[in-house]
Write a structure and sequence with these properties.
The protein has helices at about 15-25, 30-45, 70-75. The relative contact order is 0.06. The protein has a domain at about 15-45. Helices cover about 45% and strands about 0% of the residues. The protein has about 80 residues and is an all-alpha fold. It is built from three helices and no strands. Helix 1 (about 15-25) crosses helix 2 (about 30-45).
């Protein structure tokens, strides 16, 4: 059994005009276009955000921290 729920969304006028034009070009209703677009978006895999490592010029860790556990490093930074 398929049920439908009514809801209200706010989108920019420009985006709505583009969506209406696309729906008309495809020969479908705005509702059908929005449902299709939402389904496509929700079915796409979610990719992890790209995180760029922060690298500083230097010689790495000081010798006393080379093989130290994170707890020692954290306690030194945040006494």
């Amino acid at each position: 059994m398929v049920t439908h729920m009514k809801t209200t969304i706010e989108i920019s006028d420009h985006l709505l005009l583009r969506a209406k034009a696309r729906a008309k070009k495809k020969g479908i209703t705005l509702r059908a276009l929005l449902e299709e677009s939402l389904a496509t978006s929700l079915n796409a895999p979610v990719s992890a955000p790209k995180i760029k490592p922060v690298v500083f010029k230097g010689k790495g860790l000081r010798p006393e921290f080379e093989d130290a556990p994170w707890e020692k490093i954290r306690n030194t930074i945040y006494p």
